[in-house]
Amino acid sequence: MKKLALITISLLCSIVLQAQDIEGFVHRQLHTYPQSRLLDLYKSCFQDYMGAEHLVSDRQKVKAYLDEELCTTTLDDLMPWNYEPCGIDSNYYRVSIRTIKENVISEEMLLDAFIRSANTPKRPSVGEWSKRWHVIIDAIDQMQLGLPNYEQDKAFIDSILSAGKYAISHSPEYREAYHPHYRIVERGIFERELKPLIEE
Predict the structure, then answer these.
(1) Smallest Cα–Cα separation from 160: which of 51, 36, 53?
(2) pLDDT tops 80 at residue 13
(3) Nearest to residue 167, comparing CAs of 152, 184, 146?
(4) Contacts of range 32-37, beta carbons closer than 8 Å, 24 or more positions apart
(5) Rounded Cα–Cα distance for residues 135 and 182 (Å)
(6) What is the mean pLDDT of residues 182-195?
(7) Confidence of residue 15 (pLDDT cuts 50, 70, 90)
């Protein structure tokens, strides 16, 4: 009986901690990016859990896209940070292309880190992500944030997950306000290879 009570208390504590972690993430996101919609909270969370939005098979295509992005943006277009953690657990980081423009790291280095991160063999299933998202959205619902287009965004996300997909774009409001230009890098690769150069 005592053992069952201890297990129950342990489970309740983990649920409370998880809710606190979710709330902490949401408050940080909305403080940093007040124009965020639910779509943007979702995107940061799935990037944290799933990594990049797709496997990378064509390096040249990915490099050409990065080259174009570098050519069509100025430093004034970019957020002032070099990197930021994704989502709740910081399993992945967003590394700004500012790091290339300011010669902090090379284009090849960021490209290589991004491709290795995208091609990780440990990618969770969409089903696993969907279960995790439902825990997150239940906590966000309780917060009653009054985000614009909340119910429409929630229904859209549900439709994506029901179709066996998970990746979405930032909201138009977020893109207009913050001009996101970054690549997703797995935490281990980021901390070993990029962070020391960025913080030097």
Answers:
(1) 53
(2) no
(3) 184
(4) 32/84, 33/174, 33/177, 33/178, 35/171, 35/173, 35/174, 35/176, 35/177, 35/178, 36/147, 36/171, 36/173, 36/174, 37/147, 37/148, 37/149, 37/150, 37/153, 37/171, 37/173, 37/174
(5) 27
(6) 97
(7) very low
CA–CA distance, 97 with 69 (Å, rounded to integer):
9
Which amino acid belongs to residue 38? Answer: L
User: pLDDT class for 139, splitting at 50, 70, 90?
Assistant: very high
Question: Which residues lie below 8 Å from residue 161, measured CB to CB, with a gap of 6+?
Answer: 126, 129, 130, 133
Report d(CA 99, CA 86) in Å as an integer: 17
For residue 18, the model assigns a pLDDT of 78
CA dist 131 and 14 (Å) reads 16
In this prediction the pTM is 0.88
The pLDDT tens digits of the residues spanning 145-158 come to 999 999 999 999 99
Residue 23 to residue 170: CA distance in whole angstroms: 20
Which amino acid belongs to residue 39?
Answer: L
Nearest Cα neighbor of 195 from 70, 50, 78, 96 is 96
